[in-house]
Design brief:
- The protein starts with 8 loop residues before the first strand and ends with a strand.
- The protein has one domain: GroES chaperonin (10 Kd Chaperonin, Protein Cpn10, Chain O), CATH 2.30.33.
- It is elongated and about 55 Å long.
- Strands 6-7-1-2-5-8 form a 6-stranded antiparallel sheet, with no helix packed on it.
- The protein has about 100 residues and is mostly beta strands.
- The protein has no helices and 8 strands.
Length: about 100
């Protein structure tokens, strides 16, 4: 991927949207839920603190994370849809 996030930014590839309900009904695009889980594909160098030092990020490439439903910025890079988030918009690492 040709995207290198800066500082405390994280690039996440969202999980696939659900195509059908548990009962087997196919969902139109307007009814699909926006994914809130995805895989980290790139991370920045860390958060710049007031004293000038850099605090490393908690997440790393390959982590599966849960993030804010409407947080971040959706972009397309090399034909892939990804979300660019601040680390504080990530709520949890799925283990």
């Amino acid at each position: 991927m040709a995207l290198r996030p800066l500082r405390d930014k994280v690039v996440v590839k969202p999980s696939a949207e659900e195509e059908k309900t548990a009962g087997g009904i196919f969902l139109p695009d307007s009814a699909k839920k926006k994914p809130q889980e995805g895989k980290v594909v790139a991370v920045g160098t860390g958060k710049l603190l007031d004293d000038g030092s850099i605090k490393p990020l908690t997440v790393k490439i390959g982590d599966t994370v849960m993030f804010s439903k409407y947080g971040g910025t959706e972009v397309t890079v090399d034909g892939e849809d990804v979300v660019l988030l601040d680390e504080d918009q990530i709520f949890a690492i799925v283990e």
